[in-house]
Amino acid sequence: MVLKLNTAAMSTCGRRVAVVLHEKKVPYELIEPNWATMEHKSENWLKNQPFGQMPYIDDDGFILFESRAIIRYIATKYASSGTPLLPSDTSDLKAMAILDQAISIETSNFDPNAGGLMKEKVFKKMGGQEADPAFVAKYEEGMVGKLDGFEKLLSKQKYMAGDSLTFVDFYYLPYGAGLEQMGYDYLTNGSKHPNVARWWKEISSRDAWNAVKNGIPASL
């Protein structure tokens, strides 16, 4: 039974999962909710995703939600398919601790600010609301304040969890691309943060991201 990815084709978190499915070459079928009927808030949807959010997967009856958890599951279950996205030795305590550290860095230092800017300048607009200038300034300041840390980290290693690509690097893609679309050069300014720009150029130019960045294909 092919894995079912339940999400809107343009969902940021849905595309976060889809890029890893493409990178790992895992077949899937996209199941889109009906926006007109708010299907993702229906009782049927809430049985599988109790918060009424996207995405969730159905992998032969195994239901899992939260995009980062789904990505780790895919990278682990399909470790031998496509691009390796785990440390080479998953029994290495230190390597796995560094991986967990990288996960925490993204959720603590990138997502709150990049996600906050997306909420204020993109998602609110989609809902007919205006951005709050105070919140925009807060998140902009937050992004600027974290970039030196990312630069120091990436001056010592190629990727977020070391010198090998892992699934954590893919966590950044939807909101990172959103920052660019909003006109921010946080990840692309090579004169200020050359290692951040080098890393971002590499991950954002991957074929898997190009396949999903403008909308998740119906299947793979």
From TrEMBL:
<dbReference type="GO" id="GO:0006749">
    <property type="term" value="P:glutathione metabolic process"/>
</dbReference>
<feature type="domain" description="GST C-terminal">
    <location>
        <begin position="92"/>
        <end position="220"/>
    </location>
</feature>
<dbReference type="InterPro" id="IPR040079">
    <property type="entry name" value="Glutathione_S-Trfase"/>
</dbReference>
<dbReference type="InterPro" id="IPR010987">
    <property type="entry name" value="Glutathione-S-Trfase_C-like"/>
</dbReference>
<dbReference type="InterPro" id="IPR036282">
    <property type="entry name" value="Glutathione-S-Trfase_C_sf"/>
</dbReference>
<dbReference type="GO" id="GO:0043295">
    <property type="term" value="F:glutathione binding"/>
</dbReference>
<keyword id="KW-0808">Transferase</keyword>
<dbReference type="Pfam" id="PF00043">
    <property type="entry name" value="GST_C"/>
</dbReference>
<dbReference type="Pfam" id="PF02798">
    <property type="entry name" value="GST_N"/>
</dbReference>
<protein>
    <recommendedName>
        <fullName>glutathione transferase</fullName>
        <ecNumber>2.5.1.18</ecNumber>
    </recommendedName>
</protein>
<dbReference type="GO" id="GO:0004364">
    <property type="term" value="F:glutathione transferase activity"/>
</dbReference>
<dbReference type="InterPro" id="IPR004045">
    <property type="entry name" value="Glutathione_S-Trfase_N"/>
</dbReference>
<feature type="domain" description="GST N-terminal">
    <location>
        <begin position="1"/>
        <end position="82"/>
    </location>
</feature>
<comment type="similarity">
    <text>Belongs to the GST superfamily.</text>
</comment>
<dbReference type="InterPro" id="IPR036249">
    <property type="entry name" value="Thioredoxin-like_sf"/>
</dbReference>
<dbReference type="GO" id="GO:0005737">
    <property type="term" value="C:cytoplasm"/>
</dbReference>
<dbReference type="InterPro" id="IPR004046">
    <property type="entry name" value="GST_C"/>
</dbReference>
